[in-house]
Amino acid sequence: MPVAIAVPADADDVTTLVRWAASAGVPLIPRGSGSSMAGGAIGDGVILDLSRLRAIAPVDRVTRSIRVGPGVTRAEVDRDARIAGLRFPVDPSSGAFCTIGGMAATNAAGARSLRFGATRPWVRALDCIFADGSRAEIRRGETPEGVVKQLYDRLASELLDGERNSPAVHRGVLKDSSGYGLAPFAESGELVDLLVGCEGTLAVFVGIELSLIELPGATSSVLGAFRSLEDAVAAASRARDAGVVACELLERTFLDVAASDGRALPVPRDAGAVLLTEVEAEDTAKAAALARRIQAIFDSAHATAVRVALNAGTEIELWALRHAASPILARLDPALKSMQFIEDAAVPPGRLPEYVRGVRAALERAETRGVIFGHAGDAHVHVNPLIDVSQRNWRSHVGEILDEVTGLVAMLGGTLAGEHGDGRLRAPLLGCVWPEDVMMRFAAVKRIFDPRGVLNPGVKVPLAGQTALGDIKYDPELPPLPPRARAALDVVERRRAYDRFRLELIAN
């Protein structure tokens, strides 16, 4: 439960709140739509609800950019961009309701990051309020001044030599939103690259300027079913080299749950894994030719079935299975809670089969069902363990699975957070996957920007004694929420209405 909730109406309100928090020593937890997965938008402090900062400037067709408030959703940005003949290509599955502020805070990605990357390179400028209440815009290509120059100079003098000698990267991993972006900052010299992905721990974003690109001339999709995970991973690697913009994995556990939900799956019953890919091209003929090339790759990789979609209607039909993941899980036995506590690891692509099989084994040892799906092209997998909280030992099972999978990720040279950030869940575990010198640099970054620890403490850099599994919202032994609050949150979960203003739901 938070201490309080603050709903600023504009950036001046945010400045006032940050200055008050700094003087009173009260933690502030910046929050957008609250759809983040790792507990970064909750905490023992004042929730700073930025969802009402919803200004949207007209799309600049010349510079291919748009400037928005942090409470604007990804769907709204892409809608305005498409009206102008452009698009915002970063597309997490939560795009209908996640906010741009949240995407910048976590360095969010999505299915098409294989071609377009995560949020970081698409951020041109950030309007920031720092921990002392000072405000400044950080823009790519501009020389830092004032408070920004002071921060920049301290980073350069205290951390950059160490970062260049021992970069904060997981080598071979294609997606990573864990820790601070010191490596891209050291490479580019742009402070934007460090601030994106900081999860509200270094500054509060009150404005974001994004780059946009042209719309694709045409797209096509290809679905391939494979008997084994190894065949699917080999096909995914070849599809990535062939230029697909998306390559999604639906593993056997996902297919089993989808079938139990009554879905008629467009794949053979013995499929061990399914790949769903998309290609883009200048026109329909070229998109179709690319799709046929992916079809040939799948056939040569021992696919047992391949379907090609060359028009919008059939593409939507193929992708409906991937987009059904969360609704399917929501309709399972009410006693089973889909807990995303190991849901965001990414490993070097060649280690993906080992990771998936290791996760399966950990779930089996804990006698727990789970659903595995995600982004095969960049070896980034989402795992939803299904926990029966009516069982007396459910907490011990959760702890066992988390410990085992964290060790597995470390052994494979992976990251615990491919696109959802560290939050409060993963911050205490980062020492398992990052070297000690890197962890020390992360702590130094936090001290430079927020010496009093006011901004989202316990995220990115763990607090003394912090554990990964504290209060878990599904715990039936927790004190119940007030009935109207409980009913409102049930609406959010059931309808995936994360973009609905929570206080409005209670008022109604």
Q: Care to describe what's here?
A:
The chain has about 500 residues and is α+β, with helices and mostly antiparallel strands. The chain folds into 3 domains: about 210 residues, Uridine Diphospho-n-acetylenolpyruvylglucosamine Reductase, domain 3; about 110 residues, Alpha-Beta Plaits (2-Layer Sandwich), CATH 3.30.70; about 100 residues, Alpha-Beta Plaits (2-Layer Sandwich). The protein contains 19 helices and 16 strands. It has a 7-stranded antiparallel sheet, with helices on both faces. The chain starts with a strand and ends with a helix. About 50% of the residues are buried. The mean pLDDT is about 95.
Question: In terms of topology, how is this protein built?
Answer:
Layout: E1 4-6, H1 11-24, E2 28-31, E3 46-49, E4 65-68, H2 74-83, E5 86-87, H3 100-106, H4 113-116, E6 123-130, E7 135-139, H5 146-158, H6 160-165, H7 182-188, H8 191-195, E8 203-211, E9 213-214, E10 218-226, H9 229-242, E11 246-251, H10 252-260, E12 273-281, H11 284-300, E13 303-309, H12 312-323, H13 325-330, E14 336-338, H14 352-365, E15 369-375, E16 380-388, H15 394-411, H16 423-426, H17 436-449, H18 483-495, H19 502-507
Parallel strand pairs: 1-3, 2-3
Antiparallel strand pairs: 4-8, 5-9, 6-7, 6-8, 10-12, 10-13, 11-12, 11-15, 14-16, 15-16
Helix pairs in contact: 5-17, 9-11, 14-15
